[in-house]
Design goal:
The structure holds two protein chains of two kinds.
Chain A: H1 2-40, H2 44-56, H3 60-70, H4 82-103, H5 106-122, H6 127-137
Helix pairs in contact in A: 3-4, 4-5, 4-6
Chain B: H1 25-84, H2 88-98, H3 100-112, H4 116-125, H5 139-159, H6 171-195, H7 201-219, H8 224-231, H9 235-250
Helix pairs in contact in B: 4-5, 5-6, 5-7, 6-7, 6-9
Classes of the chains: A mainly alpha, B mainly alpha.
Chain lengths: 140, 251
């Protein structure tokens, strides 16, 4: 009889604790749905604003740094962010071209030049970045 | 049976002899036994019923507790899935195993064309790591190419550093990272070039080394002797030298 009473008390306490935990888990689950929804939100606009801000300050170092990180996850740009890849690709190619010139590797240097011309044609409103990048590389 | 007094035949359950009225001891004992049994039966019945009632209370509680625990587990699982999302790394690793031969061919292509940056981007984007099964042949070159990738990346960070004072200047950080990876490259280059001395990959490792020598000549403005000397320095001393060179340029 006594044992039954003790068992009942223990179960009652456990149920109260479990109910409180359930409530907490429910709140957490609700927050997780909000988080997932937030993640799905298209942040192309924000990314482009940040990108334009970097270009405004000629922070091409930052542009290529993000490019090197992003490429390790996806070799192609996400939809709407193609220009960020193009500008970074131009900077990277111009940088590598200077190395191949120093190395007397004419084959790679030519390939870089062709690639630079191709990218330049695609840059559109961002064509000015090619001029700025070329100006930086010309210092070396 | 027979009556103990008159000896006539009487029924077992007759309490008194119908002929002489003598008490039937057997029937009396039987009645007592029946009463005792009924009493015991009722007592046991009550005990069993009480016990069952108590157990029913505990059983209900256990059931409620089990439901609550199950609900917690389900909610935790759902939350984790929402926060973490699908395991991209695991998906890419499985993909790398499925397309092993195809990807190895593409990796060879990048190496043959001297596109080492694309090579590293490719292996990371496809979840191919240093220890990935099926890609063991590329292990040594992956070590060297990873440091090469980081050296090129951070030297670009230095060269393309903004001069705008209103923007965060990461020159020091980029120089520190470049020096660290260049020292790492030289260490792995020496070890892996020896490990791959009879392999076709040795040519690629050597090519990357030459690229980095040319990088130092072009961007740090060193001659061959200067490059040799620079590459023997520790990463801290490399960083000091680079800070001197690029600080001068900034001025």
């Amino acid at each position: 009889m006594k044992l039954n009473k003790i068992l009942k008390t223990v179960f009652n306490i456990a149920i109260v604790i479990a109910a409180l935990l359930c409530l907490m888990f429910f709140i957490d689950m609700k927050a997780s749905f909000d988080y997932a929804k937030e993640q799905e939100t298209d942040d192309t606009g924000t990314t482009m604003d940040v990108f334009d801000y970097k270009l405004k300050h000629k922070a091409y170092g930052e542009v290529v740094d993000h490019y090197f990180t992003d490429r390790m996850y996806s070799m192609t740009a996400e939809e709407g962010l193609e220009k960020t890849y193009l500008v970074a690709e131009y900077a990277n190619t111009a940088f590598m071209r200077r190395i191949f010139t120093e190395k007397n590797d004419t084959q790679h240097e030519k390939a870089c030049l062709d690639k630079l011309n191709g990218i330049r044609a695609e840059l559109g409103d961002y064509a000015y970045t090619a001029e700025e990048i070329d100006a930086v590389i010309s210092l070396y | 049976m027979k009556c103990k007094k008159c000896g006539r035949t009487i029924g077992v359950e007759d309490k008194l002899c119908p002929y002489c009225g003598t008490v039937n001891d057997l029937a009396a004992a039987h009645e007592r036994n029946i009463k005792e049994f009924d009493k015991e039966f009722t007592k046991t019945q009550k005990e069993v019923a009480g016990s069952a009632k108590n157990l029913e209370g505990i059983g209900k509680r256990a059931l409620i507790l089990a439901i609550l625990v199950a609900a917690m587990l389900v909610m935790h699982f759902v939350s984790r899935r929402n926060y973490v999302g699908p395991d991209e790394d695991a998906i890419r690793s499985r993909d790398a195993q499925t397309h092993c031969e195809e990807y190895k061919e593409e990796m060879e292509g990048y190496l043959k064309r001297g596109e080492y940056l694309d090579y590293i981007a490719f292996i990371h984007a496809h979840g191919i790591y240093l220890s990935s099964a099926g890609y063991e042949d590329f292990k040594h070159i992956n070590y060297v190419a990873s440091d090469y990738y980081e050296c090129i990346r951070h030297m670009q960070g230095i060269v393309y550093q903004t001069t705008d004072k209103d923007y965060w200047n990461s020159m020091e950080q980029q120089i520190s990272s470049f020096s660290m990876y260049l020292e790492g490259f030289m260490e792995t280059y020496k070890v892996q070039a020896e490990a791959e001395k009879n392999s076709t990959y040795k040519a690629y490792i050597e090519d990357m080394y030459q690229d980095l020598r040319s990088l130092l000549k072009a961007y740090v403005k060193l001659d061959d002797a200067g490059v040799d000397e620079f590459l023997e320095l520790s990463d801290a001393k490399m960083a000091v030298r680079l800070e001197e060179v690029f600080a001068d340029e900034a001025e």
